[in-house]
Design brief:
Elements: H1 23-34, E1 70-73, H2 84-97, E2 101-104, H3 123-134, E3 139-143, H4 164-167, H5 176-189, E4 195-198, E5 206-207, E6 212-213, H6 215-232, E7 237-244, E8 247-248, E9 256-262, E10 265-268, H7 269-281, E11 287-293, H8 310-322, E12 328-334, H9 349-365, E13 370-374, H10 402-413, E14 433-437, E15 441-446, E16 452-456, E17 459-463, E18 468-472
Parallel strand pairs: 1-2, 1-13, 2-3, 3-4, 4-7, 7-11, 11-12, 12-13
Antiparallel strand pairs: 5-6, 8-10, 9-10, 14-15, 15-18, 16-17
Helix pairs in contact: 5-6, 6-7, 8-9, 9-10
Length: 473
């Protein structure tokens, strides 16, 4: 998932006792230990001024919209590091499109922000925020994950457990207020960040004994964070619950919704129950956040990879109804099942981009106004399936890839507030194309792995296999 996620090479410091090296060395150790928090936890490299404003914040707009449009999430590797020529190339491209960018506070490229209570290290988070500022982004911060000492682990800069199970552990209830205080510290440090997502995918909030989500615990955490952020600045926008909208085979009975279903599957009723509880008991929300895939929990694309994206439309419309039309964000969305290593490399890039475009069309059709593509950038190499740009490890890297062209153009042509328009499609083309029209453009996707001749919005044109075409109106 991310650097400072599952990788064993994450930064670690260890305080080593020095024996038999003289009085001066012993005095140094005693002095160091006296500055540490309880149990001698190391605080090397940390500061107490985590809430001090970092760098030169961008000037936020006077009126902040609750929806930000279509952008991407930084993951383990991103263009904040690498060859200066390559990182500048990405920065320049992003500056021309101003895509919104999302970053988590711990994991996925960011280190432990508070290794010990009241001691902060935002080194990597600062670098990501600096990149967002330099590339003209609307910055978004996801408040996940939590330092070890908030979830039953050890405190200290040398004690962070970056295993997947540890990272995906939620704070214990007695530390919910500590996590809310950390969220407020982040907001004070980056005053130009006006959009915050609370937690990620209910990680650590599964109740084994009840075989359901611990939605009470999540909502308690959410409400504390919501209040803490609003105290920092009431113009800050806050959203949740970032639930994974899982679906199951439509023939399944157990845990399957009897109301929210289609050819693509049936929603997991336990997810809908969790959403309903949060929606009823939340302290407030400026926007609502979900994520999910077009395929079922068994990785089935029903009835096929393009028709499966109808799930995004159905779920989006359902969420909007439940929240009385709060702006809807998809924090993550997936259309290609992953392998055992969470890689999605089984399709050609044309195929991948076409299904991705169909998924984005489906989300907008259901009422979504914002979404973040999970950018699977690799550290090095020449190929990068599904990436927005080539790896930035060499001067020739950082070049835009087909997925970047799609996401950036989609964000430009269908910003928040766009009203989808109905356009005529030739009857024999209806099964073969996916279409989204605005006032000025029409996006057309060929869902077939062969060339076709299509007629949309009164225009006749040829399309290559899996081609994504933009028409001017």
């Amino acid at each position: 998932m991310g650097r400072h996620g599952w990788d064993s090479w994450a930064r670690r410091w260890r305080l080593t006792a020095l024996l038999g090296v003289g009085v001066a060395a012993l005095a140094l150790v005693v002095t160091l230990i006296s500055t540490l928090p309880g149990n001698g936890a190391s605080t090397r490299g940390t500061t107490r001024d985590g809430g001090t404003v970092h760098g030169t914040p961008a000037t936020p707009p006077e009126v902040t919209r609750p929806d930000v449009g279509w952008g991407f999430t930084h993951t383990q590797y991103s263009a904040d590091e690498g060859s200066s020529a390559a990182t500048a190339r990405v920065e320049g491209a992003l500056s021309r499109t101003a895509l919104p960018q999302n970053q988590h506070i711990m994991g996925w490229g960011a280190g432990n922000p508070e290794p010990a209570k009241g001691r902060y290290d935002f080194t990597e988070m600062d670098r990501r925020i600096d990149f967002m500022r330099a590339s003209g982004a609307t910055p978004v911060v996801t408040l996940c994950c939590a330092p070890d000492w908030m979830k039953g682990g050890r405190a200290g800069t040398d004690a962070t457990d970056w295993s997947q199970s540890a990272l995906e552990t939620a704070p214990t209830p007695d530390h919910y207020k500590d996590f809310a205080a950390l969220a407020a510290t982040v907001a004070r440090r980056y005053p130009d960040v006006r959009h915050f997502i609370v937690w990620n995918e209910f990680k650590g909030f599964w109740n084994d004994s009840r075989a359901r989500w611990d939605y009470e615990g999540y909502t308690e955490l959410y409400n504390l964070v919501y209040g803490a952020l609003k105290q920092v600045d009431d113009k800050i926008m806050v959203g949740g619950p970032y639930l994974v909208m899982d679906s199951v085979d439509p023939r399944q009975k157990q845990d399957a919704s009897t109301t929210l279903r289609g050819a693509w599957g049936a929603m997991d009723q336990r997810v809908l129950d969790a959403f309903a509880y949060w929606n009823q008991h939340k302290a407030g929300a400026d926007f609502v956040v979900v994520d999910g895939s077009s395929y079922t929990k068994d990785d089935d694309l029903l009835p096929d990879e393009f028709a499966a994206t109808d799930k995004f439309t159905a779920v989006s419309a359902w969420v909007r109804r439940q929240t009385r039309d709060l702006p809807l964000w998809w924090a993550e969305y997936y259309v290609e099942p992953a392998d055992g290593n969470d890689n999605r490399k089984g399709w050609t890039e044309d195929h991948r981009v076409a299904v991705q475009a169909a998924g984005m069309i489906a989300m907008v059709s259901g009422g979504a106004s914002s979404g973040f593509y999970w950018n699977p950038e690799e550290r090095k190499g020449t190929g990068c399936a599904g990436c927005l740009w080539t790896p930035t490890d060499t001067p020739g890297g950082g070049r835009a890839l087909p997925m970047y062209d799609l996401v950036s153009r989609f964000g430009k042509e269908f910003p928040p507030g766009t009203t989808p328009r109905t356009v005529p499609i030739a009857r024999d083309d209806v099964p073969n194309v996916r279409v989204l029209a605005g006032d000025k453009v029409v996006l057309v996707v060929n869902t077939l792995n062969r060339p076709i001749s299509a007629q949309v919005d009164g225009k006749r044109f040829d399309m290559r296999a899996y081609e994504v075409k933009w028409l001017q109106r």
